[in-house]
């Protein structure tokens, strides 16, 4: 069997590794458009924050490793042009690659109404998901002082923190009324907002950027209420896949993602799609959504690989679990938020715990929990702390995935150590709506 | 309803708190033999290590808090003498206390073949589970230099580390061939052994102390192969409950614990027993064992309280989950160890993962997993790392408790952040014996 994988970021690399595990004899080819694989887009902010010294330091896996450890034929600088009849792939320069099974793991870029890809023109409106884009930003950096970041999600905040660390003047524009609105309810995001402002970020909330005007080595951002002129604009709005390549050959969804079934099969035989190229099921609502996260990339890639020689495993969807460290706070979320409750089928009970992280300290963790009042199951959890407590979130994610009721969670067991946690297990502190 | 609780350590305090939640109108009395409640026996080592400045700093809850926040009638300096007919309790000084429901939460002490309780004579053979015992040790400390600790479990190791920090010469005697043998397999304990020795602890493994001879302001420890003479001996062997008080009135097990059913009821109507006074079911083997851990104290206390007015909840047992920080290593264990495999009903597959803790660092975590080859369920996990990764252990404990198969764990979700963890979820790295 010859397996061809398009894309060398998380999904593509994982698809290659898992394919090798399942099919020791297969020929496995990985095609990547860029000159290398495994770039981690978070590297840029970590570099700006001084936590790494160059963009390559944080690579998950190099082409060489993938070749030597997993016998993958990695071919970089290969741009795919489209699908042909008869299990063949058309590349640039008239190259043709045949396959028995194809996995599309092309990921996403920052395509937005603010213009095309970075690098197309010498513009001061930048993107940075790809390494080449990050390098352009790093070249600009010494010559600019006032920088606008559009988007108050994880990426926009990471960049803002990095730029503050690099002594830049930062204006952050967010169209909603709060930071990290996809993951945290407003009151859970409040400490972060305060801390980002205290660090020097000029926050513009409820500030939808309608237009960018580039003129005289500056860019002006125009919102309904104000104008701000800066030296450079970084677009950190949500990513979208560019699947125009497959317009004529695969069924696409309205948002541009490739249609797949629960086994990651596209509308065309022998062709699978994974990661940021597809939608996933958000478990709490059962709805198919575009959720661009590494854990989805990894999970769907493994599934596709498992299903190449016969359908073995279905996707059970995602809880959209994230964790980050931003402006002095560890923040994370899994499952439903309260503000999403309106899309949920049952009434929700919320509970917020303010607990010291151990018996030693007054350092606190704030945990918000959402319980379905009908099933009495945990359906969402958010956590904020100055202490590194995010691993707890993965336990909440498991409780949600396994549809544990609050009563069942009472029997959870934790180790206890006075310097590390509290005597009463966290799970046993969740209130059961039954008790009313 | 009048609820009387005997004992003011973890189990007793938790029984009082939970009783108040269930029975808002009840009269609740807590009797404690010592002059205060809530002492945490780990305080002593933390004090010696300089992490706290006095023994009271780490109290879970004071008598005053319990009275004010939960309206518990806390009575200290009350020694119980025995049970009388007609729901009455005999105290010292001819005091009699009646009850509708009684919860015995008397905990355990270090009763061993090396002699009676500390304080009975001005001896250089000390115990330290109670605060009064810890205070005796602290008085001795300035005048002694060479100290022997008997027992290489959690308590013995914590004390040894504290004494090293206090610049004492420490000899640690352990009758088995390794440290922490109840919780870790030999190879998982090896880094700790090396690190304790490097810190200056003189380790005596396979060294069962047959006799202690106290003479001329010194104590000589005698094992099969050697004699060692020291200034002071600390007995850190496993604790046992002293239930001789109930010899004539309650059914006891051979190991001195009080017999209880799954609802924490003793052989006598209206009398419950919890915590270190009873045995608990070790979930992986289904065997009733004496396992002296705070999490068992908390769980059984809550159960007893829930069952006082009618049987509501059964105990599902323990996984014996522990976590500690010793000589530079975070160490923990949940469920079965490989060396216990001989007591287990099915063959076990072991797997050891050596993983960096995130994409940034070469700092490692070593995780040993045990999988039942027949059910394909996870049944045990151990972890060792220089990094604070122990919260992961609680997730393994949940997986074991919920009888997750390795295949089911493949769908586990984790957040990903390059500076905090790895892209592939930990649970998805466990090998399934099915694959052979």
From TrEMBL, chains A, B:
Q: Does the keyword Flavoprotein apply?
A: yes
Where in this chain does the record put each FAD/NAD(P)-binding domain? 1-300
Q: Does the keyword Flavoprotein apply?
A: yes
Q: Which GO terms describe its molecular function?
A: oxidoreductase activity
Q: Which SUPFAM superfamilies match?
A: FAD/NAD(P)-binding domain, FAD/NAD-linked reductases, dimerisation (C-terminal) domain
Which cofactors is this protein said to need? FAD
Origin superkingdom: Bacteria
Q: Which UniProt keywords apply?
A: FAD, Flavoprotein, Oxidation
Q: What range(s) does the Pyridine nucleotide-disulphide oxidoreductase dimerisation domain occupy?
A: 331-420
PANTHER family referenced in this protein's UniProt entry, alphabetically: NITRITE REDUCTASE [NAD(P)H], PYRIDINE NUCLEOTIDE-DISULFIDE OXIDOREDUCTASE DOMAIN-CONTAINING
Q: What family classification does the UniProt entry report for this protein?
A: Belongs to the class-III pyridine nucleotide-disulfide oxidoreductase family.
Q: What is this protein called?
A: Pyridine nucleotide-disulfide oxidoreductase
Species per Swiss-Prot/TrEMBL record: Enterococcus pallens ATCC BAA-351
């Amino acid at each position: 069997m010859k397996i061809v994988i398009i894309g060398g970021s998380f999904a593509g690399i994982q698809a290659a590794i898992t394919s090798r595990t399942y099919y020791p004899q297969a020929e496995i080819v990985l095609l990547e458009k860029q000159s290398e694989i495994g770039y981690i887009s978070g590297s840029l902010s970590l570099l700006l924050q001084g936590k790494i010294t160059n963009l390559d330091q944080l690579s998950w896996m190099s082409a060489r490793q993938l070749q030597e450890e997993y016998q993958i034929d990695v071919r970089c600088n290969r741009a795919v042009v489209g699908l042909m009849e008869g299990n063949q792939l058309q590349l640039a320069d008239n190259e043709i690659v045949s396959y028995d099974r194809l996995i599309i793991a092309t990921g996403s870029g920052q395509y937005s109404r603010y213009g095309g890809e970075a690098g197309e023109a010498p513009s001061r409106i930048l993107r940075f998901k790809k390494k080449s884009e990050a390098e352009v930003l790093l070249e600009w950096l010494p010559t600019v002082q006032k920088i606008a970041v559009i988007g108050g999600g994880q990426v926009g905040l990471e960049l803002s923190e990095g730029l503050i660390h690099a002594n830049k003047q930062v204006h952050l524009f967010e169209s909603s009324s709060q930071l990290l609105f996809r993951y945290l309810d407003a009151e859970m995001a409040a400490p972060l907002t305060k801390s980002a402002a205290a660090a020097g970020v000029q926050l513009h909330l409820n500030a939808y950027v309608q237009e960018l005007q580039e003129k005289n080595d500056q860019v002006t951002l125009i919102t309904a209420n104000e104008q701000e002129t800066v030296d450079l604009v970084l677009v950190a709005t949500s990513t979208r896949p560019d699947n125009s390549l497959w317009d004529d050959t695969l069924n696409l969804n309205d948002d541009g993602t490739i249609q797949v079934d629960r086994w990651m099969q596209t509308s065309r035989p022998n062709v699978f799609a994974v990661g940021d190229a597809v939608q996933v099921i958000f478990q709490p609502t059962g709805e198919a959504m575009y959720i661009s996260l590494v854990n989805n990339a990894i999970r769907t890639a493994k599934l596709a690989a498992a299903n190449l020689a016969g359908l073995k495993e279905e996707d059970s969807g995602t809880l959209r679990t994230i964790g980050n460290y931003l402006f002095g706070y560890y923040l994370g979320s899994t499952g439903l938020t309260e503000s999403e409750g309106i899309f949920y089928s049952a009434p929700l009970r919320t509970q917020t715990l303010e607990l010291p992280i151990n018996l030693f300290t007054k350092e606190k963790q704030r945990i918000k929990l959402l319980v379905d009042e009908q099933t009495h199951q945990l359906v969402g959890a958010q956590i904020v702390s100055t202490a590194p407590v995010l691993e707890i979130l993965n336990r909440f994610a498991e409780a949600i995935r396994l549809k544990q009721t609050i009563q069942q969670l009472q029997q959870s067991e934790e180790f206890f150590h006075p310097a590390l946690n509290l005597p009463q297990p966290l799970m046993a502190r969740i209130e059961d709506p039954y008790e009313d």
